[in-house]
Specification:
alpha+beta; 3 strands; 2 helices; 3-stranded antiparallel sheet; disordered N terminus
Length: 84
């Protein structure tokens, strides 16, 4: 596993702030599968690396469907806003 980059805490805070102000009913996240080497990194690292974990930690959205795609080495999760 790669070490977290220094700006990760700032990114997590920005994601949390975005979720707090988000009026979307549905969010779709695409995360790494078990073989993390499959994904390419940009210079700064992947944007929104922590979206899935931030969504799991907050209570505003809940996961309603999760599908693994082994050939693409990713997992797609559909999140719905609670109370709507």
């Amino acid at each position: 596993m790669l070490p977290r980059r220094p700006g990760a805490a700032v990114d997590r805070r920005a994601l949390s702030d975005w979720l707090d102000g988000c009026d979307c009913d549905t969010i779709v996240s695409v995360e790494d599968g078990p073989d993390e080497a499959y994904w390419e990194y940009i210079q700064r690292g992947r944007l929104y690396d922590d979206l899935g974990s931030v969504l799991r930690e907050q209570g505003r959205y809940r996961a309603v469907k999760r599908q693994a795609f082994p050939r693409q080495n990713c997992v797609v999760t559909v999140w719905k806003r609670e109370g709507r």
